[in-house]
Amino acid sequence: MVQMENHDTSSTTTTTTTSSSFSSFKTYFHALSDTPHRLARRACSVSTSFEETSRVRAMSGTDMKRTLRWYDLVGFGVGGMVGAGVFVTTGTASRRYAGPSVVLSYAIAGLCALLSAFCYTEFAVDMPVAGGAFSYIRVTFGEFLAFLTGANLIIDYVLSNAAVARSFTTYFATAIGVSTKLRITVHFLPKGFNEIDILAVALVLIITLVICYSTRESSLLNMVLTVLHIMFIVFVILMGFWRGEWKNFSEPGNPKHPGGFFPFGASGVFNGAAMVYLSYIGYDAVSTMAEEVRNPVRDIPVGVSGSVILVTVLYCLMAASMSLLLPYDMIDPEAPFSGAFRGGSDGWEWASNVIGVGASFGILTSLLVAMLGQARYMCVIGRSRVVPAWFAKVHPRTCTPVNASAFLAPSMWMLSLVFAGRYDTLLDFIWPSLRFLKVWFIR
């Protein structure tokens, strides 16, 4: 928050050209001493949609190429949402909260995600820039809340991507039938931080090179991986409906446990919906591609909303498939689908390896989309001069935010090497929704 002041506190911002606070140590420390005064002036100052799409966008130098169409956005949305999370959250939600009615939990969560996606769509069409939630909040609630949201987004992306990269190693080991975790144990390091994951680091490095090379090629790679992943999901769905028993929708494995389609009542359905909503996180990253879409007015609504609807249908069918394979009280919360095949289908233990392959493809696509999104968030935060403008630069040859990607990648390498964590993402979805209510009320 010690960057140069480039506009006043009025809602219609004007700019003054001054040198960057990061140009030298002298100017930086001078700006640091002036932080209280600058914070008071900039905290509630807002930008405008016109300014974000003109002067602020020009700070990147080269424009990002408009190469994406609606089907690219659908692919990014599906790839970003359908990761490995659905293979875990479904079991927990069914076993502890909703039972067989977890199907309705996914439908309710999908409706909530769709309403949130409408908010992102509205703003992405009105202001097709790469900043996503950061830009939407900046033009409505001011720079301070935008700064908090941007910091939360970057921390969330880096930590969760590191965790996802490490989880790839586990699922890949399951897919190839290896019992070990494919990690190197270093005994002199503290427990919990002593399993070195070289495969996760290599995965992050490869994806970084891909997203720096070209957004269009990244979309093609995501499309291929997403199609392969959906093929495995369809396999799980078909096997569940073929090998499952309809009585499992109403009869528990233990007669002492509550039975029926709603064993935990209506509250269980909504508690389950709150649990499985995490499986829909990822559609927000699609809004960061708005600057690279050929026809934002047509392609963004179809891409974002269409991907959420498609994923909701897949999730509901997957939940129904799992519920058919086993009674809800016999589902393994940690590995529901592979456990269902082992426990409910004689001779189908090999299907758990197939599920591991499918989950591996899902991890690759969700990591690819998330890394694309985090680089664009960092790029636009750099345009606002809250961080050095170096992050805002777009490479003239590749037309991608190479600087932002190159800065965030080493952080993920170090975290994915020894640590896996997750950060709360609630605020990232609340503020754009509040902004939508404010704009709608004013109109």
TrEMBL record:
UniProt cross-references to InterPro entries, sorted A to Z: AA/rel_permease1
Protein location: Membrane
Bias (Low complexity): 9-20
Its membrane topology: Multi-pass membrane protein
Keywords for this protein: Membrane, Transmembrane, Transmembrane helix
Predominant location: membrane
Top-level taxonomic group: Eukaryota
Recorded family membership: Belongs to the amino acid-polyamine-organocation (APC) superfamily. Cationic amino acid transporter (CAT) (TC 2.A.3.3) family.
Name the record gives this protein: Cationic amino acid transporter 6, chloroplastic-like isoform X3
Originating species: Coffea arabica
